């Protein structure tokens, strides 16, 4: 059932216009974080949908292919922004938004930052090993030693940053971040 059914066309249009503005804003915001505008719009549409929705329904509402919807839904599930849910009497997969924006933020950045940290720490560890080997090979060359020492110090400094970032990720994942920066609860 359409929740706007029973309203005047003007009322339904006003509500839809206000929702579309927020959906567009959500899409643009998510685009800033590397999620496509269409997936951001998909999340916004699902956010305002009261209850679970199928890929067919999403495809019809967004005017996009079921394949595109499937890709978008998979992305949102990977980011822990939506869940697949069970629906009585239907064989189709149903999806609904996880409406906790604080948790969505934490999950998104934890996932993205952890991947970056692991990749960068691996590269830096490998480079430090190569630098140590070069130091041994050129122990009698002060100019190469100076370059290698400077590079070593820069990499160690960068690794300190990534260790700090891991602590931030852990604070996001554990929820301890909210002890430092409490969730703001709006007044009604």
Please, could you describe this protein's structure?
The chain is mainly alpha-helical and 188 residues long. The protein is 70% helix and 4% strand. A hairpin with an 8-residue loop joins β1 (82-85) and β2 (94-97). The two termini are 28 Å apart. The relative contact order is 0.07.
How much of the sequence lies in strands comes to under 5%
Radius of gyration: 24 Å
The level of helicity is 55-70%
Major sheet details: 2 strands, antiparallel
Could you give the order of the helices and strands? Answer: HHHHEEHHH
Q: Kindly report how far apart the N and C termini lie.
A: 28 Å
Structural class: mainly alpha
Instruction: For the largest sheet, list the strands in their spatial order.
Output: 1-2
Mean pLDDT: 92
Uncertain segments of ≥5 residues (pLDDT<50)? none
Which outline best applies?
elongated
Number of strands: 2
Keywords summarizing the entry:
188 residues; mainly alpha; two-stranded antiparallel sheet; elongated
Short précis:
This protein is mainly α and 188 residues long.
Would you spell out the secondary-structure blueprint of this structure?
Blueprint (H helix, E strand, L loop, with lengths): L8 H24 L4 H12 L6 H8 L3 H13 L3 E4 L8 E4 L3 H37 L4 H33 L2 H4 L8
Helix pairs in contact: 1-2, 2-4, 3-4, 5-6
């Amino acid at each position: 059932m359409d929740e706007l059914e029973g309203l005047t066309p003007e009322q339904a249009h006003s509500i839809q216009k206000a929702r579309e503005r927020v959906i567009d804003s959500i899409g643009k915001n998510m685009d800033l974080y590397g999620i496509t505008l269409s997936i951001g719009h998909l999340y916004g549409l699902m956010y305002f949908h009261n209850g679970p929705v199928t890929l067919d329904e999403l495809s019809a509402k967004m005017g996009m292919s079921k394949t595109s919807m499937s890709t978008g839904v998979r992305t949102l599930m990977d980011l822990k922004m939506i869940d697949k849910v069970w629906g009585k009497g239907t064989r189709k997969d149903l999806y609904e938004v996880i409406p906790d924006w604080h948790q969505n933020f934490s999950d998104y950045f934890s996932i993205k930052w952890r991947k970056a940290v692991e990749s960068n720490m691996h590269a830096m560890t490998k480079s430090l090993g190569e630098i140590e080997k070069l130091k041994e090979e050129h122990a009698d060359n002060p100019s190469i030693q100076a370059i290698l020492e400077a590079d070593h110090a820069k990499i160690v400094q960068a690794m300190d940053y990534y260790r700090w970032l891991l602590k931030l990720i852990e604070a996001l994942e554990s929820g301890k971040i909210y002890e430092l920066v409490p969730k703001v609860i709006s007044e009604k």
